[in-house]
Amino acid sequence: MRSRNNRGSSSSGFVTAIIAVVIVLVVVIGLVWLLNRNKQTSGGVTGTGGVPSGNVGKPKPIGRVFNGCPPSGDGGDPALNTLKNRIDEAPWQPSTVATILSYKWSQAIERQPRSRWSASDASAIAQYEGAPVQVEGYLVDAKSQGPESCNCHSVNDVDFHVWLVDSADKGRDQSVVVEASPRVRAVHPAWTLSNIRRLATSHQKVRISGWLMMDPEHPDQIGKTRGTIWEIHPIMQIETEALGGWKPLDDGSTGVRSVAAVEATLAPVTPESTASPPPASSAKLQRNQDVQITSISFDGKKKSESDEYVEITNKGSAPVDMTDWQLQDPSGGNGYKWESYVIQPGAAIRVYTNEVHNDSGGFSFGSKSAIWNNSGDVAELYDADQALVSRYAYGNKR
Question: How far apart are the C-alpha atoms of 158 and 72, rounded to whole Å?
Fold first, then answer.
């Protein structure tokens, strides 16, 4: 009897050891699966979930001439354009929408080119700007932008304006704007506006990789069409969640890798020597009450409504320099900026949704979708000092 009990005790101990080994193996396999799930499908992610900060290297932007347009564009803020037009790829650093929304900035830089920033303000922005970030979330919508100085005012080569949130039930007012530039989209055939919008309507989780950038031009849209003026611009990779991992929309790549990172304390990138800084306002306070938005043709006759337009009239007796003025669509986030233009007394000009009519100035948002809501909308005109010159409301927005 005693010997039988000893054999039973040995068998029980052996089974216990086997169970312990199995448990250890299951834990190890689970950890390996989690680590693999968090790896980037192309290029890999360095770090362990940190956020962009002064400790993250920020490579100098690499850009090339694209369809005759240099990285610095053809006006506006050439330093900002150079950042928007970079094409280099990097090991992306994990971050979150909430983290980017938490970043601050000085009001003194708002609507100001980098050439007018103070050294302290530039240094504060440089802590984060240029970090190669990777953020998970959901897309709200996507829209084609109009002609801009970064793209040499091309009506074909335009940015895609996309809104990213961290929860599918949130709207644009809590989003980070992420932009797909024409230079990067040229090597990503699947990055069409319809495909990106499909990701938004299906509430499919995405992972966006790209460059963190400060765009000081839209502080008035915070809480309306965006949650911050920090952007991921340009986007360098779009992935969707699939089978516990991430799958790129296509296999495209610029093939350009970032060079060794520069110190985070360096000032933001300077423009190319051929670029000229934007003209400063000639007056401390401009008096432009004579220039007014006089009408909006919001119900276009064409199916695409490309023939919608905003009419602006100089009702005064003197010419008015509209250089650096902006026409804004506050509800939709669209904008048109004049790089150099003088409106003559008594003259009326039009800014079309997606047509160019030289007899009325030749101005166009370059938007492939309608801008002005038939039920009611608002247009605002700002001068070079970002003072509101004219506001026009119609329909249910009166």
Answer: 15
Token pair, residue 369, equals 């979708």
Side-by-side strand order, sheet with 291-297: 291-297, 309-314, 348-352, 363-364
Calculate the average pLDDT of the chain.
82
**CA pair distance 323, 119, nearest whole angstrom:** 26
Q: Which residues of 299-315 are buried (b: 16+ CB within 10 A; e: fewer)?
A: ebeeeebbebbbbbbbe
- pTM over cut 0.85: no
In contact, 364 and 356? CB cutoff 8 Å: yes
Nearest Cα residue to 175 out of 102, 60, 97, 251: 97
Whether the pLDDT of residue 35 is over 70: the answer is no
Mean pLDDT for the stretch of residues 269-276: 34
Nearest C-alpha neighbor of 230 from the set 125, 344, 315 = 125
- Cα–Cα distances (Å) from 153 to 36, 55, 73, in that order, read 43, 36, 8
Q: Which residues, 6 or more positions from 269, have their beta carbon under 8 angstroms from its beta carbon? A: 60, 61, 79, 82, 83, 130
| Length reported for the chain | 398
Structure tokens at 314: 């100089």
Integer Cα distance of 179 and 217 in angstroms: 14
Q: Which tens digit of pLDDT belongs to each residue from 145-184?
A: 888 889 998 888 999 999 999 999 999 999 999 999 999 9
For residue 228, the Cα-to-chain-centroid distance in whole angstroms is: 11
Residue entry with tokens 């991992």: 245
The predicted structure's pLDDT at residue 27: 62
Q: What's the CA gap between 176 and 163, in Å, rounded?
A: 6
pLDDT tier for residue 17 given thresholds of 50, 70 and 90: low
What is the number of helices (H) and of strands (E) in the chain?
Answer: 6, 17
Strands (E), 298-359: 309-314, 320-321, 326-329, 334-337, 342-343, 348-352
